[in-house]
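REQUEST ID: PR-0412
SUBMITTED BY: lab tech R.K.
PRIORITY: routine
TASK: structure prediction, single protein chain
INPUT:
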Amino acid sequence: MSTSYDLIVIGAGPAGLAAAWRAAQRGFKVALLERADHTGGMAASVDVAGIRVDQGSHRLDRATPDALLADLHGLLGDDLQLRRRTSRIRVGDQWLSLPLRADEVTRRLPPSLLARIAKDSAAMSFRRGADDSYGAVVRGRVGPALYDTVYGPLAGKQWGVSGDALSAMQAHRQAARLSAWRVAGRAVSQVRRKKQATAGGYYYPRAGFGQLVDTLADAAATSGVDIKLEAEVDRVRVYEDEVEVGTQDGDVVTGGLVFSTLPLPVLARISRPAPSLTSIESAARLRYRAMLLVYVVHEGGRWSSFDSHDIPDPRTPVLRISEPTNYRDNPADPADHSVLCAEIPCSMTDEVWGLDDESLADLVDETLGLTGLPAVNRVHVETRRLGQVYPIYRLGYEDDFTEVDAWARMIRRVVTLGRQGLFIFDNIHQALLMAYDAVGAVRDDGRFDRYAWTVARERFAKSATHP
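STATUS: complete
OUTPUT:
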């Protein structure tokens, strides 16, 4: 069976959903193909013990532009809540609030670490740091003490390699966090307390973050988007005047333009004409980090008063523990139990990937004991395994990405976007804005304005590497 569309969107994550919805609003005939049996991608929520939980810790940034925020408020109404952030990070044997509070840093950290931080901060203006790796950039910005205590261990857990084996680009993408630590370092070096905001804010839907993508999917369908679930794309063939997209179940969809949010290595593998051997080899070297999500049901009400806890401690593979019900104000959430979500970044070849649910729950219990967090009254556990969560910016990845991206830009009638499609680790609002710009670059006659899209991509690149 063959059906023709103006635009075919591959992938129903936030970027794909927003692009399909916006294009349909402009009057284009749109098909949206998604391999899973639901929309939303990793931003979708799932049900655990009667509680809607996210696949990791998701928030909509307070910096979301007003125009986009107005659209989301239009879709979600009062269900899009402005919330106060109550996150913490474990530094040494102490928990510190996020965003950092300089007075808390000076009051809680051990004197020996404070002395090292003060020494690093005093020497900061005289240090000319190298910029050839993530480790070198971060040491130059926050000093060796904080790097060894926080950023080095976090890099090892999150990316699976040391900070010195990561590209400096990863540090540039964390510029805001680094600035926060510099503020704390200066306060320590001056040996005084400095008042700061006690918490940052974020937007979050009343029924879980997945409510945002569910509402986008409903809006897309209402606008006429043909959403095809369980449609795993296995070929994209480009012709002079159309693109043919095939799925594993034998369906064929044709259209004038394709927006692909597939991982670049996947697109390179299924595209015809095929890329050059050099591009294929470069695509194979673009790697993604996997993630284990362990949901532990706690009986006895809320487990804590915090939304999330970041854990640099290298003695445990758990990177973060969040409590979804603390992200929102929802009277429908049960009062007698709660759910913890433990995030474990890993490779699919790591031993932890193959552990059963109970063993992973025991690992979470050990982490709670190591970090001084409250014990959990466990009554149930379930897990989810995500194979491709975020890109690994290893040293030298830029050359491989440039090679593959140059090939992708040259494909007629195909545009790559989104986290996977552009090999970027962006925020949800950035993915949505990217979709808006991609649709904005489609002319009324259906032709794609490559110049406008290039300008938009350059703008995103700059916003990702500056505080």
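NOTES: The chain has 16 helices and 20 strands.
REVIEWED BY: pending
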